[in-house]
Design goal:
The complex is a heterodimer. By secondary structure, chain A is α+β, with helices and mostly antiparallel strands. In chain A, about 30% of the residues lie in helices and about 30% in strands. In chain A, strands 12-13-9-8-1-2-3-7-4-21 form a ten-stranded mixed sheet, sandwiched between helices. In chain A, strand 8 and strand 9 form a beta hairpin. In chain A, helix 1 packs parallel to helix 3, helix 3 packs across helix 4 and helix 8 packs antiparallel against helix 9. The longest helix of chain A is centred in the C-terminal third of the chain and has 20 residues. Helices cover about 20% and strands about 25% of the residues of chain B. In chain B, a hairpin with a 4-residue loop joins strand 3 and strand 4. The chains are: A alpha+beta, B alpha+beta. Chain B: InterPro entries: DUF4387. Chain B: It comes from Lentzea pudingi. Chain B: This is DUF4387 domain-containing protein. Chain B: Pfam families: DUF4387.
């Protein structure tokens, strides 16, 4: 599988499985001699709902469409396919969901590929035991963890490094479906298995993790990284797109706190001394990346818990007088609303919480907003959170007459405002928050993860 | 006297995004070295603290002359996806920074 020159070529077709890419881009990657396909299936970026509920952000049809192309390519070129953070958050349910989609495709396409699934969900008992051993440490800005917080989580996942993936590849897996994993571990596992040096491997893995994000046309699709003993070369799969020294170097800025140093379970990537050189108009050579192995392995934990149930209501204001007096209107709304909730439902401010957002005015930035120009119209969103859905909706319904008819204090009549929908209230179900931002010390980098191997055809 | 330009006027792009659920990060991609020099000098921890109502000691700033970039990271003031989070990806929080006027 190695390229003749000893380099290892990693094909990343897209930054997110299910986002879509062209068949021709993958064909191009195979022509260029790809040795492995690595693609990310998840992220925390869309919020705590997906981890909290153990459901995927992407729709099954989109994931299946992408996987069908990649599984065919894997079988055709006899190269491994690695998918990480399956099902968005990498819960066991997410891995099983992607594995089911893979099974169906392997049967339909009659592809004879062996599949490894790596589960990364963590039991509360395990985390609490490690906590009692003083082996769980907060990452800034988190505080120390307590057992009640662990127990409150609906799901906890450990973020694996390359080691469990590399182990699955060694055991003969053609397809590795990993639970929660660092974005970089997916692209790093195979080149590390082939003995490529850690500095170039981890830096290349960081550059390819978002697909075309490191090119001059982020929508053009995937990239190919060729990793060798002294560095790596990166190029877009789309012949019309380009990587430039600036576009590649700038990708280290994307979604990172520190653009020079990045922690992995096995150590730290340091790109302070890295050089970025154009080989031609669309390929960039990167050298000088370093990786310092850590003293001991740590695994980052992610957890989410239910904070309550939400009901949303939305109305809109076009009346010039209310627009000109929106602060007075808002103050009156809050006063009348909280008074009516106490009067009709007998609830005080501990029993529910709400957020009144004035879209078109200052909803997005609030008091930070530098703009002062008057809006043409304002959308008023009321979000109510309470311990049950029924209670949240009851509170939101109390607000309904106000969102329809509340005037400003100086108006002598009742305006009728513009509800966006009927009914005005939408039940959002349980809502979640991320509560873990901690690492746990581990004796081995694989002990927190469980791997299953199977031939997909055994499921016929 | 004409008004001074904003850093957004002098930049190719100003952007913001989550860096994980607990941090926000933003970058000023300046057009040229002159713009970079202005941004690198003006945008410090105290300026960011006042623009975003956060503590100056929590603000990290990275000045990268090779890219004409000033990058800023600080802990997210509001938890991602919570009741009071109005920008789940923190993708619109670059605006106060972009609106900052050159002194």
């Amino acid at each position: 599988m190695n390229a003749p020159d000893g380099a290892v070529r990693v094909l990343t077709p897209t930054g997110m499985l299910g986002a879509g890419f062209t068949q021709s881009s993958v064909d191009r990657g195979l022509e260029l001699g790809a040795d492995v396909i690595a693609v990310d299936g998840g992220s925390t970026d869309s919020g705590p709902h997906y981890l909290g509920s153990g459901t995927a952000k992407t729709t099954a049809a989109a994931v299946a469409r992408d996987l069908r192309i990649l599984l065919r390519a894997s079988a055709q070129a006899r190269i491994p396919l690695i998918v990480g953070s399956c099902g968005t958050s990498g819960t066991d349910s997410g891995v099983a969901w992607v594995a089911g989609i893979v099974d169906d495709i392997l049967c339909e396409e009659e592809l004879d590929l062996s599949v490894a699934t790596i589960f990364s969900e963590q039991r509360a008992d395990f985390v609490k035991a490690r906590l009692r051993d003083r082996a769980v440490h907060p990452l800034p800005p988190a505080a120390a963890l307590d057992e009640a917080t662990v127990d409150s989580c609906t799901h906890v996942v450990g973020m694996m490094g390359h080691e469990p993936i590399e182990e699955a590849l060694r055991a003969g897996a053609d397809v590795v479906l990993a639970g929660r994993a660092t974005d970089t571990a997916l692209a790093a596992a195979f080149p590390l298995l082939k003995g490529m040096p850690a500095g170039p491997v981890w830096h290349a893995a960081k550059i390819v993790e978002c697909g075309g994000q490191c090119t001059t046309n982020p929508r053009a699709g995937g990239v190919l990284a060729t990793i060798d003993r002294t560095g790596f070369t990166i190029e877009p799969l789309d012949p019309d797109a380009a990587c430039t020294p600036i576009s590649v170097a700038a990708h280290m800025l994307y979604e990172t706190v520190n653009p020079f140093r990045m922690r992995e379970p096995a150590g730290e990537l340091d790109v302070t001394e890295a050089t970025y050189t154009a080989l031609d108009e669309r390929r960039v050579r990167v050298e000088g990346s370093r990786f310092r192995p850590a003293d001991h392995h740590t695994i980052k934990l992610e957890g989410a818990r239910i904070t309550g149930y939400e009901t949303m209501s939305f109305t809109a204001i076009r009346d010039e007088h209310i627009l000109a007096n929106i602060e007075e209107w808002t103050d009156l709304f809050v006063k009348v609303f909280t008074g009516r909730v106490a009067q009709t439902l007998g609830l005080d401010s501990d029993d529910y919480a709400f957020d009144l957002r004035r879209y078109g005015h200052d909803a997005v930035l609030g008091s930070l907003d530098p703009a002062t120009r008057p809006p043409r119209e304002i959308g008023v969103m009321l979000l109510v959170r309470a311990r049950t859905q029924e209670l949240a909706t009851a509170v939101a319904k109390v607000a309904n007459p106000l969102m329809l008819h509340l005037p400003t204090p100086d108006m002598a009549y009742l305006p009728s405002l513009a509800f966006a929908t009927s009914p005005a209230e939408t039940e959002r179900g349980p809502v979640y928050e991320f509560v873990l931002h901690h690492v746990v010390d581990t004796l081995t980098p694989t002990e927190m993860f469980r791997t299953e191997h199977r031939k997909a055809h055994s499921h016929d | 006297m004409t008004e001074q330009p904003t850093f957004g006027d002098l930049a190719l792009e100003v952007r913001s995004k989550n860096a994980g659920p607990f941090w926000v990060t933003m970058e000023l991609f300046m057009r040229d070295e002159a713009g970079y020099a202005l941004a690198a000098e003006t945008v410090d921890e105290a300026v960011v603290a006042s623009l975003y109502d956060v503590r100056a000691e929590d603000v990290q700033i990275f000045r990268i002359p090779s890219l004409n970039v000033v990058k800023i990271s600080f802990p997210r003031p509001v938890p991602q996806g919570g009741l009071r989070d109005r920008d789940v990806h923190a993708g619109q929080h670059h605006v106060p920074l972009a609106s900052l006027r050159v002194r």
